[in-house]
Amino acid sequence: MKQSSAKQYAFSDAEYEELRRIIEQSVGIALASGKRDLVYGRVSRRVRALGLSSFAEYLARLRKGDQAELEELVNAMTTNVTQFFRESHHFDYLRETFLPEMVQRHQRDRVIRIWSAGCSSGEEPYSIAVVMAEFLDAHPGWRAEIWATDVDGAILRQAEEGVYPMESLKDVSQERLRRFFLRGKGVNEGKVRVGKSLREIVQFQRVNLIQPWRIRQSFDAVFCRNVIIYFDRAHKKQVVEGFADHLAPKGHLFLGHSESLHGLTDRYQLIGKTIYRRRD
Ligand SMILES: C[S@@+](CC[C@H](N)C(=O)[O-])C[C@H]1O[C@@H](n2cnc3c(N)ncnc32)[C@H](O)[C@@H]1O
């Protein structure tokens, strides 16, 4: 049995395999063999936090069906890197093409619905909300609804709070800062909080993309960027085809810069840089 050297806990091949399996089955994240050190680093923190003395004890706990710990493991294993207006061409497309098309199409209910799936700490849905709020200034009587979901409960709580270091908004214009964000004072100096007008548009919820979704409405667009990149092929396909089922006719899917539907499904047509439209 191979064991890592110079580490506080023994970590066998079999234990690594079992953790990989549990993570893949719970959230679809496919860990390559090169991720062993990453898994050791993140899981050993959980072993320590629980006061256990080995990975074997930790796995025994998961095998007994400890759901709360499974959630902690998922939170520990997700990669939450994100930023405001990341991949800015998507936001230009929203403003210049997508939203004008929507107001042509939705004459009846006048609500534009967007799902940010895998929203991490909230920068993505709040960026969408900024663009929608600005656009709707010129379209009174219209409403925007953004549903922002993630499997990581801890990061979702941060997203809901909507508090960010000032530094994370360095590329956001002064005008947007003034209109949509509140500057912290006293102990919150150097931080900003997302203002009410954006918070009212965005609704957060914990959703695991690889488990069945309970959704009744359809969306005009889904942003699922830099999420399926971590999934194996079967889960990628399951998730993007699920989006197609929940998109309105001609609904759009925005993927991350290194993600593609090529060879995965024929339910979409590529219409821009990592922008897809559902085939009707
Ligand atoms: C790298 S972040 C991307 C954030 C944002 N979409 C962006 O592009 O900046 C990936 C997010 O996907 C979430 N995620 C991973 N597996 C998931 C799953 N099975 N269901 C829902 N969210 C998941 C992670 O928790 C993480 O917050």
UniProtKB/TrEMBL annotation:
Enzymatic reactions: L-glutamyl-[protein] + S-adenosyl-L-methionine = [protein]-L-glutamate 5-O-methyl ester + S-adenosyl-L-homocysteine
A family per Pfam: CheR_N
Keywords: Methyltransferase, S-adenosyl-L-methionine, Transferase
Domain CheR-type methyltransferase: 4-280
Record-listed S-adenosyl-L-methionine binding positions: N80, T82, R86, E124, D150, N208, L209, R225, N226
Domain of life: Bacteria
UniProt-listed Enzyme Commission number(s): 2.1.1.80
MF terms (GO), sorted A to Z: protein-glutamate O-methyltransferase activity
Stretches that traverse the bilayer: none
Annotated SUPFAM superfamilies: Chemotaxis receptor methyltransferase CheR, N-terminal domain, S-adenosyl-L-methionine-dependent methyltransferases
GO biological process per UniProt: methylation
Function: Methylation of the membrane-bound methyl-accepting chemotaxis proteins (MCP) to form gamma-glutamyl methyl ester residues in MCP.
The protein's name in its UniProt record: Chemotaxis protein methyltransferase
